[in-house]
Amino acid sequence: xxxxxxxxxxxLRNTWRGLTSMRTALVLLFxxxxxxxxxxxxxxxxLNQSEVDRYFREYPTLAPILDKLGAFEVFSSVWFAxxxxxxxxxxIGCLLPRCYEYYKQWRAxxxxxxxxxxxxxxxxxxxxHASVDEVMAAARKRLRGWxxxxxEEADGARSISAERGFLREIGNLVFHFxxxxxxVGVAGGKLYGYEGQVIVIADGSEFCNxxxxxxxxxxxxxxxxxxxxxxFCLRVNDFDVQYxxxxxxxxxxxxxxxxxxxxLETGTWRPYLLQVxxxxxxxxxxxxxxxxxxxxxxxVTFPDGQQRTGLIQWQPVSPQTMLSQGATxxxxxxxxxxxxxxxxxxxxxxxFAPTATFDGAVLSSGFPDLLDPAVAVDVLRGDLGLDSGRxxxxxGVDQSMVxxxxxxxxxxxxxxxxxxxxxxxxTTVRFxxxxxxxxxxxxxxxxxxxxxxxxxxxxxGIGTSLAIKRRRVWVRAVPHPESDGSGSVRTVxxxxxxxxxxxxxxxxxxxxxxxxLLGTGVDHSSPEAxxxxxPARERxx
Amino acid sequence: xxxxQTLSTYSDMAYATSVVIYIAxxxxxxxxxxxxxxxxxxxxxxxxxxxxxxxxxxxxPVVGRIETPQKRPLSxxxxxxxxAMTVLGxxxxxxxxxxxxxxxxxxxxxxxxxxxxxxxxxxxxxxxVVLFRQLRAGRRDATPTQLRGLxxxxxxxxxxxxxxxxxxxxxQAGPLIPALQSYWIVIHVSAAIVASGVLLFxxxxxxxxxxxxxxxxxxxxMAKFGSRLPTSQALDRMAYRATVIIFPVWTFxxxxxxxxAEAAWGxxxxxxxxxxxxxxxxxxYAAYLHAxxxxxWRGVRxAWINIFGLAVMIFNLFFINIVVAGLHSYxxx
Lengths: 541, 333
Ligand code: HEM
Prior knowledge:
heterodimer, A: alpha+beta, seven-stranded antiparallel sheet, five-stranded antiparallel sheet, elongated, B: mainly alpha, 72% helix, binds protoporphyrin IX containing FE
């Protein structure tokens, strides 16, 4: 029993040691890089579902296998998560002992001067016309800012051990801890954040963040149930797009108003010009412009003279020309009888072109801006299937209704603004005009400031760590054996140096320092002084 | 924002000229590399110079130096010309970018063509900085001839990239698409450019390190080629220093990109292909720095990691921008 326990403990200890070793960290880093690569190469569901669908069509055998492996959701897959979780466990397991280690080093005095300084990677010596005291005083002055201890040695010799660059390790620790913070901050955002998309027509329409049902799509963080959204309202008055002659967009501008906080009570609206790169930040949420398009306006006049106007977004099918498709749907007004109502619903569906070009009777768009709008529409009458309980796209009609013959095409025509179609029963469908719509994204992430803070700490930490060298210098002054009696005091001074980090560039610093200490600065290229200053061999091991 | 066509035409001409100059420089570098004396012979001459005079740097006139006017051999003159051509190329290339900037009234890195061009400029400048610093430091592990030997191998990818940018990726001068109209393009993209350029140099140094290390392990292998390169230690140090200096810049570029993405795309990180690939490259370089601190991984293995990092960077620049549809695809491609 006891033996069993000891073995288990030993196993645990060895696993922990293995996990927190530098080599494991290296391997895990490498695995992380490799595991992330498919995320860039294989389409990802969270980014582009239609690309994923295309992949399934193009590689019908491969795609399901990849799907099983989670290749279309790399960044939420179990294997990706296990790599980074292991890496971060390793990281923490590595950091804690290093903090303690560092604390001990920081408390300790710089190490004793080695007996044989000429064994150091950097070494120079000279005989000076000065006393040991003078040499020591000068050295102390030159080494100001270094951590220093002075020690007495045998035979009247004295030495200084000096050390510098402790900040390097602090930078390194800050960097690694900030990585942990970054991960925690990102995870917090996934728990407490939300993101919603909504299309608002730019004719003074409003949107209020009062519930998830107001959105076209909504992605809630794991703890968000949609009841506690930040309260605010938006109103989109106008949408202005500027195009270059080649059709490239020069600027999008959404003229909008918002209310949040007290303004909601008092009904005050504040203006904002929403642009790409300039989100509106209110009530802890951010509002972005992420898309745009056109909404044609149709008016249907029923045989009894009643009118209904429909204005709903159509979907751009070509971002270059903004040719759009969609379906505007109407219920006959004042019809109580369900059956009758379902025989007379109307859908206007087809294509919209902001700048019409016709190839025969086929409509296409020549330019994305609203220069010469036209629609090519089918008018369908019958049962739209809106009551069937099945969801349907707002951009099209339920094809199964057409297939069952319950929804029939009664007209097909190209219309310009003001033109109308007259149906057999006297109903008219008029194309009245166009509005633009803006796709707005509302994002909420209470952890974002934390993530930013840790990101800055990452940069500061890594910068400090890589810019600062940890290095040691020793100076030893020994009275020259022939110096007494003759009147002139002489001292043999030796300087040794060691860079403790894998960091090039210490050689130059040491050369300068030694030149100052040995008084060879004037002619520091003199053969003897250079003789022992090895080539810049900074590597410790 | 209208485009000044005259300036943009001059910019294109300067671009083409700089490519020609770089090709000339590359050939001259290779000329010196092929016909230069091997390291040992050159080193002998260097040491003669050192003991004859100050030695730290040859530019520093030392009183009393007895100089036998020794005509520099042809190969060294080729090397000198190569460096001069490189400097000239940088000037013309820089002018091409500046003119683009003036023609369009914006930073000259708004599309793939301009981005590729700027990265190459950064790489060549990084090379010149290293070269002049190394020459001045007067290290003993590389003669000037050996140092210049790197030049051709750096110019080769640069010329290739410039050629690709100037043909396949070329885009007419024009204003920026709205998503790029932000001061972050100055901060984020310039950091990415500088980092990519310097990492290109580091990668080339690591490739040469591997070749030289092979030669040092067995001097019979690639004897001619290997002996003309600086020592493996010098190459390793150059690659490492370049990476160490630029890693924080690359980190900064990614973080600045995230800050920009927060304003432009509605989230600071979304695993867009470009973001993913930059992250992968970053992790690979982090692995490189770790490898340098891990026993048994310094040297050859670390060099391979560095090369892999460069491969990911290049893949990120071309494949991701061109083939994979993401938010990052530049206008005019
Ligand atoms: C989240 C993944 C990690 C990343 C991105 C990362 C990144 C880095 C980078 C860029 C450096 C070089 C900067 C410097 O020297 O200060 C570094 C150094 C270092 N890392 Fe990490 N690291 C990670 C995880 C780890 C882990 C798990 C360990 C422990 C096994 C570790 C231990 C070290 C040590 C000891 C150094 C100092 C090396 C030296 O003295 O040059 N790191 N790390």
